[in-house]
Amino acid sequence: MDANMDNAGGRLQIVKEAIGKAAETAGRDPHDITLIAVSKTRDFEEIRSVLEAGQKIFGENRVQEAQTKWPAIREDFPDTELHLIGPLQSNKARDAVTLFDWIHTIDREKIASAVAREMESQNKILRCLVQVNTGMEPQKAGIDPTKAAEFVEKCRSEFNLDIQGLMCIPPIEEEAALHFALLKKIAEKCNLPVLSMGMSADYEKAIAYGATHVRVGTAIFGPRDYS
Ligand SMILES: *Cc1c(COP(=O)(O)O)cnc(C)c1O
């Protein structure tokens, strides 16, 4: 396909090429980096063009919104993998476990416990990441970086969750690299292989710092319209 900036399929191709280059520059294998196409606010038609361009892994940040779109989309595209990348309330744990394959936002015991309970009752295992509030922003979700290692251990031993790694969203006004480096350091300490970090503005930088999963919306779908 032509790398064409006018459509989502073309922009997807451009992002994939940029991921390949960033991996190469960092001396990493591009296959070790997973692109999650973030489809929040996008309708079926917009998502379909990206599915038809071959993308199989998508991220949504709201359980309710994802529920209105993905069961129907998956009838046509059954082999898609869905990642929850936004905050989870415990009263949405059941729906989240039903719909998603991964949850990136485990950040407190109440959620860890609710997700564990639902996985058991639905007999389904989701891969989980612990969200770390690397900027210690009071309004932002995520566990405090100093408590992350202990929390990861607890998720494993007490709740039996399949914790694969860590996720962060750096503060907008700060140098993202500092936060990527901190997340990597905590992951190494915990012996965790997965690092979900990097969005449209900084995924190449995140790859330089070891990201294994980048979450890219705008660079694929174009600017979001929240109206
Ligand atoms: C929306 C969102 C993204 C994608 O952001 P873009 O800047 O559009 O690439 C990534 N991660 C999370 C948690 C998001 O909510």
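The first strand starts at residue 34 and ends at 38.
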